[in-house]
Amino acid sequence: MTMINAYDGAAAGLSAEDRALLARRERVLGPAYRLFYETPLHVVRGEGVWLYDKAGRRYLDAYNNVASVGHSRPEVVEAIAAQAAVLNTHTRYLHEGVVAYAEALLATFPAELANLMLTCTGSEANDLALRIARTVTGGRGLIVTELAYHGVTAAIAGASPSLGPGNPLGPDVWTVPAPVSPATGADVGRQFADGVSRALGDMRAKGVRPAALLVDTIFSSDGVFADPPGFLTEAAGRIRAAGGLFIADEVQAGFGRVGPQMWGFARHGLVPDIVTMGKPMGNGHPVAGLVVRHEHAAAFGAAVRYFNTFGGNPVSCAAAMAVLKVIQGERLAENSGVVGDRLRAGLDALRQRHSRVGEVRGAGLFIGVDLERPSGEPAPEAATAVVNHMRDAGVLISATGPGGNILKIRPPLVFKPEHADILLGALSEALDAI
What we know:
The protein has helices at about 15-30, 75-85, 95-105, 120-135, 155, 190-205, 230-240, 295-305, 315-330, 330-355, 380-395, 415-434, and strands at about 45, 50-55, 60, 115-120, 140-145, 175, 210-215, 245-250, 275, 290-295, 355-365, 365-370, 395, 400, 405-410.
């Protein structure tokens, strides 16, 4: 979520028309909004893995994980339009759409995760998960990683340290170090679990009962950490032993992103207490939610009525069902695994030729690439240069991590081998240029 390589206020490279649009935007939207790239990109159309600017130039999108089954996917567009033309209400009426979608989605999860609760955004889903965890456990304490991003509601922004020092953490939020790389030779699972145990110990010392450990299962904002498979199991065991729940935030990793499996937590051989979802669930349509163990849903429902006016509406469910059908029908989780392997192999080859390229990490089509100085220290200036050079060359990526030096690659799941090759070529040229 960190806004690395963002537009910094200069209008260099923009046409007079775009400078005028930028001035209008800043006047009406205010200073809290941000734009990507040193020269902002004015897009007017998307199709598949491509975005197009107003001059008709196309850009290979290797960053936007929201349009997971491709920009302007016809099946999703048609499902939204058809349902909107008939009915759009809410979940307090009986309707086939929400039930059918819940049945289809829950079939992709372990049987223990038996109930679906729908929201509009991933932020809402994580907020609801925290409410459930606190109701079920009677605790307040929440553990997240040091550079986590989980959303923008008041409670969840307070559990999203990546939003920056101007966004204080909540009083019941503890942070732990992100996982280390297995290349360090450390026991990754033990290291991460020990951080959780230290946070739990500090909670006890302060008289706070734990409610949950909440992690993005690809650790996107922390720098992308996927390996070794299974390393999350020990940390999940420690929070549960202390009376808390394990919440897997799959907003980034879910729906085949870290394929060939459908969900990021599946790489770790565990079943969470709650799984939250968002972004790619509707391919850009605002639909999100969580799945939860039935006993937790029952305990929450006995204490609190849940209703969300737009969450689970017929149009949103039609969009989500269309996305799920495309992912399953085109085996996009498997495609993510295959094309992701090709990308990582190509990135490892670049590493042999370019001294600035450090470790390559990730799973499926979510990849992080360290850029380093000759001393081995993070090179955020190199990441900024590479991201902007690639934008100018027609390929879109971003950067993340505590040092701002980790290239972040997460294209739509319909990325093909030929698209991976275009990306690798543009990255090689960008590395040569800097």
